[in-house]
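My current task is to audit a protein record that another person submitted. What it holds is a sequence and that sequence's fold in token form. Thanks in advance; the entry in question is below.
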Amino acid sequence: MPELPEVETIKRDLSILIGRPFKSITVYDEAYLEKNEIMPKELKKLEGQRLLQLSRKGKYLFLHFSKPILGFHLGLTGSLILLAGENPFDKFKHKVLSLNFLEMCLVFSDMRKFGRLFLFDEEKNFQNFLIDIGPDALEIGLPQFKEALRSIRKPIKSALLDQKVISGVGNIYADEILFRAGINPLRSAGSLSEEELQKLYQTMKEVLHLAIQLRGSTIKDYVDGLGRAGMFQTKHLVYQKYGKPCPRCGEPIEKIKVAGRTTSYCPQCQR
């Protein structure tokens, strides 16, 4: 599933579209739109407008046109790929729609169809939607980070995955952050000391920034906005490395379940 670094990478790739005239939209999967309570004719309101800006919060990406705002959550296998020209290539077997800009085309496809689309006609509706998303992991300050976790009794891994607590961190980065911070994923979030919270905060920022520099992690399906694989998976220390030696102590990496999610950790280094 694309997490914050992957969505931020795509956002930066798509910035070339800002200010470019939007000509038309082509819908390939009306059932997908219906599932998201969007009618094709509603999307036609975008035609003839310009893309003013792009924004992101957590794992959500938003395209701000003159009035409507089009939002995406990529789910497990969603992709947004920018192509030269105004018609998508046939290789996209699971196309949902294409946004046809002047001399460029943005294709949204989703093989497993777990992604989401949003269309906001008014700014107030958009702002109300953002309220339900927790503070972005890249934007949150240390005091707010400590306050968000201090009263939570569930495991810290669960807290990091809760998008209403902090948004943007998913299973990949939660495992990598906790290992680098030396914190056991089963520890109660509220039991962390001030020093541990500060270490966790700094590690979270470092991991996310490095992952963005390396254009995200490609495990299976993820590609960036230009159709290229990310490279942060080459820096993974524990994620899905069950049974392999810990890069710090040499003991085997173990696999457990936390809040129903498969979790990789080193019981020796993350006591």
